[in-house]
Amino acid sequence: MSNDVRELVAASSRILAQAGHDDLIWGHSSARDPGGRGVWIKSAEWGLDEVTAERVHLVSPEGKVLDGSGVAHSEYPIHTEIMAARPDVGGVVHTHPPHAVALAAAGQPLRPVSHAANYFVPPEVPAFTETADLVLTPALGRSVARTLGDARAVFLVNHGIVAVGPTLQQATVAAVLLERACAQQLLTAAAGGEPSWSPPEESLSKREHIYHDRAVSAVWDHLVRRLPGAGER
Ligand SMILES: [Zn+2]
Question: pTM of the entire structure?
């Protein structure tokens, strides 16, 4: 079992790297431990693209490595406190994707100018502005969880993003969609003119038509197939 969850976190990490979320050795994604002991997450000091099952370990809500080796990421409270606050969440992604960071730093709310943002909007994607520094304590982690509320993602302004889902597969797809949506919006703004976007009713109907569970699951499978070396396994 622990092998499956390790493989899952490794695949999520490598997918995020390939989807433009890599930031040297920073950024991480996690899956809830089915036994309730904490989160399975990559160990620190590796790039997302370098994560293998052996580089994934189990971290407790107190930040202790309970299973596996390596150094725990200092921002583990993002994962453990969101999981504590949101029993519906089984996967959390925290990364520093450049387009999402740029859009949030510019103070622009995410607008559904293409398909991708409809996965999130409405409601408006919340923005965490208490600090742009690292989320190093359980108290700050709880604060991020409060800002996230019931949403699928939150901008950590001048820092990065957090995306969540019932499973790590869904959280990973959410993170990939969020960065694509932000890139599309920046491209739209750069084109000038008078940008348009979907009104809320259309966004909700697009969400149902495009991003239903079966499609999101197929997107995950597609992202796994696109990983380097996927055909050789
Ligand atoms: Zn961070």
Answer: 0.97
